[in-house]
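Quick question, first post here. What does this chain look like in 3D?
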Amino acid sequence: MVVIRLARSGAKKRPFYNMVVTDSRNRRDGRFVERIGFYNPVAAATEQGLVINTERLAYWQGNGAQLSPTAARLVKQFNTNKAA
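> Answer (accepted):
Ran it through. Tokens below.
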């Protein structure tokens, strides 16, 4: 099954997450098909904390990719911030 989830990167105590499309059997930070965005939980006020390519997200969801619970929460947050 293809899943859209977060892959952790960044330094110790400074997390940075890439939103990736991957096979569910792959490791969290392992091989992925495509990077469709990122999430920086410790972003400063001047930096972008959440970026998602909505066209690619819609494409992968149309092909049957499932969102992880955390990715679904972030997509919902992104859509409400973009609309406001």
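The chain has one domain: 2-83.
The mean pLDDT is 93.
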